[in-house]
Amino acid sequence: MDLSAIDPITLFVGLVSAATPLLFAAIGELVVEKSGVLNLGVEGMMIIGAVCGFAAATTAGSSAVGFVAGAAGGAALALLFGVMTQYFLTNQVATGLALTLFGLGLAALIGQPFTGIKPPPFHGLDIPVLSDLPVLGRMFFRYDIVLYLGVGLIALVWVFLNRTRTGLILRAVGENHDAAHSLGYPVVKIRLAAIAFGGACAGVGGSYLSLVRVPQWTEGMTAGTGWIALAIVVFAAWKPWRILLGAWLFGGVTILQLNLQASGFLSWLQSLGIPMQAQYLSMTPYLVTILVLVVISADRTRAALNAPGCLGRSFTQSG
Amino acid sequence: MTILRNTLVAAALVLGFGAAAQAQDEEPVRVGFIYVGPIGDFGWSYQHDQGRLALEETFGEAVETSYVESVPEGADAERVLRQMAQAGNDIIFATSFGYMNSVVNVAKQFPDVKFEHATGYQRADNLATYSSRFYEGRHVIGLIAGRMTKSNVIGYIGSYPIPEVIRGINAAYLAAKSVNPDVQFRIVWSNTWFDPALEADAAKTLIEQGADVLMQHTDSTAAMTIAEEQGIFAFGQASNMANFGPDAQLTAIIDNWAPYYIQRVQEVMDGTWSSTDTWGGIGSGMVEFADLSDKIPADVQEEARTAMEAMAAGTLHPFTGPINKQDGSPWLKEGEVADDATLLGMNFYVEGIEGVIPQ
Amino acid sequence: MLRLEPRTSASPLVEAITPVGAVIATMVAGGCLFALLGKNPFEAIHMIFVAPLLDPYSRSEMLIKATPLVLIALGLSFGFRAGVWNIGAEGQYVMGGLAGSAVALAFWNVEGAWLLPLMVLAGMAGGCLWAMIPAVLKVRFNANEILVSLMLVYVAGLFLSAMVSGPLKDPQGFNFPQSRLFHDSARLPVLLEGSRVHVGVLVALAAVVLAQVLLHRHMFGFNVRLLGQAPRAAAFSGVNANRLTVICLALSGSLAGLAGIFEVAGPIGQLQPSLPVGYGFTAIIVAFLGRLSPIGILLAGLVMALTYIGGETAQFALGIPKAAISVFQGMLLFFLLAADLLTRYRIARIRRGVV
Asked: For the complex shown, is ipTM > 0.90?
C-alpha cells in the first residue's frame, strides 16, 4: 500500500474537473424542478449535447462553437419534452424516460460519421500571477474557462431564484401552479423556458464530456451521468450552492475510489480479510443522498421551503 | 439489386417461406455476427466488424453478411442467435464470452448451422471456439514499456479480474521486469468493459500517481486520448488508436479477426468446416501490432521485433520459467513453459506485482 | 382560440382509434427516417410490426419479452393511480432476481420440487423489502418516494455487481462475474416444446385478470382510485393514505421482484451482472401507454415487445442500425403518449367573454 501516492491537491483538482458535467446538468435540472417539472430525460439531453457539441466543434474547428451547439441540441430535445408535457399533457415521468431512449438512439445516429476523430484542443487557463501561486494556483486557477462558467452559472441561478422577480414567479409556478395562474402568470410559457434552459445546461454538460473530459465521441459515452445529475438535485435540496457540493461529492467518490485502488488501499483491506469491493464505495453517494433527503423532508415546514410543491404534476387551465 | 434481392430472401425466410431461398443456383454463404457493443466502440466490437467487412471484401458476391449490435448478454442473446439461425445463416459468430449458454442452446436446436463462439470453452459438433493469445502482444508492449518508462511506474487499467486480463498483466509485467528490474505496476479495476468517462478518470488517476506509460484492458479509446493530452505514452487496445494519440501511442495490440473469419468461411464453402478450438497468436496473424512509434529508440524497436518474430516462430513463450507466484511459491521451473490449461484459468499474479486480485 | 375541455366520460370509439392513429403516425415518421437512411421504408415497417407476428417463434418470444414488462407495469399502475410514484422498479426487479438466485445458489447441489416456489417467494420478498425502504421513508419521514426509489436503483445495480463478483460468483467460473448455472429444478418449466415460453407467462396473464378484479371489484381498487382522484374525499371516507402508500409500494415491489426471479430462472438460467436491462423503466412507459388499466397494460407490453423483436430482425435482415430502431421506438412512445390527450380532453373553441 502506498497512500502517499495520493496527493490531496491532485485529488481535489481531479474531482473538480470530473464534477463539471454533473454540475451543469444538475443546475439545469434544478431550475426545471423549481418550476414544478420533473424531467427524467437528462441522460438523453446530455448525450445529444455531447454529440452536437462534438460534431459542431470538429466541423467548425472551434470548441466554443461546440459548446453553443451542444446547448442548442440539448435545448431542442428538451423542448420536445416541453411540448409533450405542457401542451399534450403527457405524464412527465413516462415522457422523460421516453426522451432518454429517443435521445440515446438519435445521438448514435448523428454521431456515426464522428467516431474516431479528435476534437480541437481545449486547455486550462493560464492566469498571470494567480495560476503560478503555490498550492492555491493548482487548486483554483488552472482550470478551463467552461468550468469557471459552470460555477458562475450556479451563482447566477442563485441570484435569479432568490433576488429577481422572474425567479420568484418561476418558484411560485412550481409551488402552486393554480395560484400562479390565477395571479395571471403564464404557467406554461415559464415552464417551457425552464425546460429549455435545463436542456441547454445538460447539453453543455454533455459537450464538456465529449470535448474536454474524455475528449472524443463514442456511442453511449454518458454512461449514466445524466441519472446522477438527478440525484444531485435531490442531494442539494434544490439549493443552487449545494449543487456544487453534490457534484463534487458524486464526482469525487469515483476519483477517490480509483485513487484508493491505484494506491493499493483496497488490496490492503482485502489482504486483511475485509473484501472491500469498489462497488460498495460507489454506492455511498446514493445512500448519502437518501439520508439527506430524509433529513430535509422530516421537518415538514422546512421541507416545504425546498421541494417544489407541484413537482411532476401537469397543469391545465381548465383542470 | 443484389441487396434488394437478398433482403427479400431474408424477409421470405423470416416469414417462414424457406423454400424460396432454394430457387437460386449459386447461393452465397450467409454469415451472421452478434456483437456485445456498438460497432462504433473502436475497440472489441469494432474489430470484429472489421473482420466482417474483410469477409465481404475477400469473397464479394459469394458471401452475404449481417449483424446485430449491442446485444446484452442474457435473455436477449439467445433469441437473436436463434432468429439469425432461422433466417438462414450458414455460420454465425457470437463474439462475446457471455453468449456462451445462449450459443450452446441454439447450436443444439440448429445442427445444420455452424456456430463460432469467441473466447468461450464449450464446444459441440457444430460449435467451435476461437480466441487470440493476446498475452503475446502484452509481452511485446511490456518490453517496450519497461524500456520507455522514466518513473518506473506503469499504469494498468483492468476491466474484470478474469484469467484473460490477469494473464495480460502477468505477461506485460514479466517482460517489463526482464528489461527493467525497478519497474512497478499500478493496477486499477474499472469493473466495466466500456465507460469512456470512467476510463479517462482512471487514466488521469494513474498518471497523477506517477505512471508515465499506460496499458489498458478496457475497450474505449479514452485512456489513449488522456495520455496524448498529458504527454505520456500508452498502448492501443484491440484496435489501432493512433488517431487518438498520435504522439502517445507507442504501438497497439490489434485483434485481427479477419484471417480467421476468412479461413472459416472458406471452409464452409469447401465443406471442410469442423468444430475446432483455435487459440491463435502472432504466428497465425490474429495478434497484430500497429506501427512502432518513432519515439521508441531503434535498439528497443529491434528488441520488440525480435520478440515478435520469436513468438511467431514458436521459439519464445512469454511464460517461460523460472517464474514464482506472487507469494513466492514456485510456479514454473527453469526453462519450463506454461501449459495452456493453466494459462486459461490463470487466477494469480506472478512474483513482484503488488496488490491482491479482487475476489 | 382553442382550448382543452376535459371529457366527462371517455368515448370508447376515441379510446380505440387514438392508439391506432398514433401507430400510423409513427409508421409514416419512421418510414421517412428509414428512407433517409437509404432503406426501403415499407420493408422496414413490415419487418418491425408485421413479420414477428407471422412467425411462431417470434410470437413465443414476444410473450417472454412482454412478461416482465406487464408484471412490473401492473404493480406500478395501482400506485400511479393513487399518486404513489414508484419509479425504482428496476432496482426492485434486480433485488428480486438477486434474492431468488441466492436461494437457488444456496441449494445448488440439492434438487427438489420445493426449490422453485421458495425461490419465487424469496424473489417477491426481495423486491417487496426493497420497495419498503421508500415506503417507510415516505410514511415516516415524508421523503419523496420518486427520488428515494430512483436512488435505490443504482444501489441495487452496484450491489448486484458486488455480489456476482463476490459471494455469489461461480467458484468454477474462472473469476468471471457471474453465478453458477441453475440446475433444472431451479428453472421455470417450459410450456411449449421448442420455445422458451415459461410458466411466468401464465402467471403474468393471471396477474392481469387479478388486477382487473382488484381494481374494479374490490374495496382496495376503489380506495386507490379515490385517493388518486380526490385525496380529501378519500380522507373523509376513512381511507388511510399511509397504509395505502405502503400497500401500493409493497405490491409493485413484489411484482417487480417476481419479474426479476422469473427472468433469471426462466430465459437466463444464472445470475449475471447484465440482469438489469431497463425493464423497470420501460414498464413505467408501458403502464402509461396502457392508461393504467390491466388490459391496456397487457396490450402495451405486447406492442413494446413486438418493436424490440421486430427491431432485432430489422437489424440483421435489412442492416438498419440499432440507433435507428431506438429512435423509431422513441417516436412510437411520443405519438402514443401524445395521442392520449384526445381521450382525456376534447378540443373546443373558446367563446369570447368567457374565460
From this structure: no
